[in-house]
TrEMBL record:
One Pfam family cited in the UniProt record for this chain: Cyclase
Gene3D superfamilies assigned to the protein according to its UniProt record, in alphabetical order: Putative cyclase
Domain of life: Bacteria
Gene Ontology molecular function, alphabetical: arylformamidase activity
TM annotation in the entry: none
Entry protein name: Cyclase family protein
Cross-referenced SUPFAM superfamilies: Putative cyclase (SSF102198)
GO BP term, example: L-tryptophan catabolic process to kynurenine
Alphabetized InterPro entries for the sequence: KFase/CYL, KFase_sf
């Protein structure tokens, strides 16, 4: 739905704290970014350390999403505990002025139905 956060669960966060975490990670393509833009995503989050293929210095996913005002949150953990739908995602940034990459306190509130 338009205006929703899209959180991408790859399972990569299981490698958190190991040397494998920074290995070639799952990522999105420029085409996937276009789909997210067209769908009206309000935010994109992923449980790996980069939404882009780090070998591609053009960073097409970052470029496309940020050009459309869509924030990106990387390094999420515990997405497997969330239901597919029915929660509100929050990302509270640290108050760092003029930052280009700012840590957030990410959390979700499951909505009782």
């Amino acid at each position: 739905r338009t205006g929703c956060a899209v959180l991408i669960r790859t399972g990569w966060d299981a490698r958190w704290g190991t040397p494998d975490y920074l290995a070639a990670n799952p990522n999105l393509t420029g085409e996937a970014a276009e789909v997210l833009v067209a769908a009206g995503a309000a935010l994109v989050g992923i449980d790996s350390w980069n939404v882009d293929d780090v070998a591609d210095l053009a960073r097409p996913v970052h470029s496309r999403l940020l050009a459309h005002g869509i924030p990106i949150i990387e390094n999420l953990r515990g997405l497997e505990r969330l239901p597919r739908r029915g929660f509100r995602f929050h990302a509270a940034p640290l108050p760092i002025p003029s930052g280009s990459s700012i840590p957030v306190r990410a959390y979700a509130v499951v909505i009782e139905r």
